[in-house]
Amino acid sequence: MSSSTKVDLDGNPIKAMTICMIGAGGFIGSHLCEKLLSTTSHTILAVDVYNDKIKHLLEPESLPWNGRIQFHRINIKHDSRLEGLIKMADLTINLAAICTPADYNTRPLDTIYSNFIDALPVVKYCSENNKRLIHFSTCEIYGKTIGSFLPKDHPLRQDPEFFILKEDVSPCIFGPIEKQRWSYACAKQLIERLIYAEGAENGLEFTIVRPFNWIGPRMDFIPGVDGPSEGVPRVLACFSNNLLRGEPLKLVDGGESQRTFIYIKDAIEAVMLMIENPARANGQIFNVGNPNNEVTVKQLAEMMTEVYSKVSGEPSLESPTIDVSSKEFYGEGYDDSDKRIPDMTIINKQLGWNPKTSLWDLLESTLTYQHTTYAEAVKHAIAKPTSS
Description:
Layout: E1 18-22, H1 27-39, E2 43-48, H2 55-58, E3 69-73, H3 81-88, E4 91-94, H4 101-106, H5 108-117, H6 120-128, E5 132-136, E6 164-165, H7 183-202, E7 206-211, E8 214-215, H8 235-245, E9 249-252, E10 258-260, E11 262-263, H9 264-276, H10 278-281, E12 284-288, E13 294-296, H11 297-312, E14 321-324, H12 326-330, E15 341-342, H13 345-351, H14 359-383
Parallel strand pairs: 1-2, 1-4, 2-3, 4-5, 5-7, 6-15, 7-12, 8-11, 9-14
Antiparallel strand pairs: 10-13
Helix pairs in contact: 1-9, 3-6, 5-7, 8-11, 11-14
């Protein structure tokens, strides 16, 4: 597609740019690469340690975007080539992070280093070389809602002012230091503050993205199949894994936490608007979620069980869920945020963006993909005798 035909939200032509995408091989990166290659004329310098999820974009050479994506196998922890790639690009997008809740407890040092220390050079290189940065943060940085500190039956708990999360107003409330679950949120918040300060003091052009549970094909991992056999993925992948293996879904502390979920393809549309509308996106922090898709984790389990039964043709288990304690599931030091509902005022005003896909539809798309892609692999993995 010729770049001259595309215009931004203000009617200005969008010039072809070079984008250095750190973490391009992950779930979000793979979808963003697909979208950029198929609908724009931008070039991608794809940086990651793995490229499994973008292999289909890198070969064969007959692909229509041949020459517009280069893969660089780099661990950003200790690689001097990173600055050179950032210098070559017009825009850097940083998606790299440890972002699996089970790790926040069991690997707090890795979590803090990955999300703060390792991100420092990226911010520094962008600032020093006058390059624009889109940095991926997390909805976790809000921590607990103000409402969660009120008694369970307090009427103000129902007041949106006490639980809707706003980029420019809501405080970031974390649990005590011994609750290591907050190591991730705290590291992510500190890098946000640093980026914001670089913008204020040194003129860094930045956009910060706070994703609220982005869901879709290629997300997370099924342990032992397309991810490490040790470790616990996030809630949706945990439930998918149980469904694929015909096991009951584990509800941590009764599954009372509330979450909103958004379809990856809706979320990618929002990111595309940020990429191509710097005048509207620079200096902004954007929630990207779908407040209409709110459920408790227990309701999510029930819905996924129903959707999976439809997708797979297999009957649901007689007891589809079991209760486990957070200590048993995540280990000592776990703590949780109660509700996560994004306020969408800022992104709507700046970029005119709204999510479209319903929770049922996004679950159906994701579970269909997982069932067809992984069912055989999971059967194979279960059937394969493990060597002791």
